[in-house]
């Protein structure tokens, strides 16, 4: 059984989010939540929220199918960060100049699967 969650337009740069994603790839879902809870980086918060959403989606999917659900059996089978839209901002400067500021966003995707389904 697989379940996924996607967060779009997250206001974290993809490079910073990939650091957190690489840290938890392939681990058990409950262990990954613990790692992200205590990680000092700001990018850990949105990644943790998406992971918890994927776990909740797996719980709902198991309930609908009438299968037993054990959170300890879930493994992160796939997790990746794609680049989202770039928010373009301008800040006025002296003598009519304008500094362009690009704010990057991310799309975070997490797929969790039961241990036998992850292989």
From TrEMBL:
Keyword field: Ribonucleoprotein, Ribosomal protein, RNA-binding, rRNA-binding
Pfam families, alphabetized: Ribosomal_L22
A Gene Ontology molecular function term of the record: structural constituent of ribosome
UniProt entry tagged with the keyword DNA repair: no
Sequence similarity: Belongs to the universal ribosomal protein uL22 family.
Function summary: The globular domain of the protein is located near the polypeptide exit tunnel on the outside of the subunit, while an extended beta-hairpin is found that lines the wall of the exit tunnel in the center of the 70S ribosome.
NCBIfam families associated with the record: rplV_bact (TIGR01044)
Protein's name in the database: Large ribosomal subunit protein uL22
Organism of this sequence: Bifidobacterium mongoliense DSM 21395
């Amino acid at each position: 059984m697989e379940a996924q969650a996607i967060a779009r337009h997250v206001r974290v740069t993809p490079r910073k989010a990939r650091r957190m994603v690489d840290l938890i790839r392939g681990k058990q879902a409950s262990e990954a939540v613990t790692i992200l809870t205590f990680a000092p980086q700001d990018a850990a918060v949105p990644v943790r929220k998406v992971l918890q959403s994927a776990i909740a989606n797996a719980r709902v999917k198991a309930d609908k199918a009438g299968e037993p659900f054990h959170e300890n059996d879930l493994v992160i089978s796939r997790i990746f960060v794609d680049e989202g839209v770039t928010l373009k901002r301008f800040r006025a400067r002296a003598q009519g100049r304008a500094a362009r500021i690009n704010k990057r966003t991310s799309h975070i995707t997490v797929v969790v699967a039961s241990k036998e389904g992850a292989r």
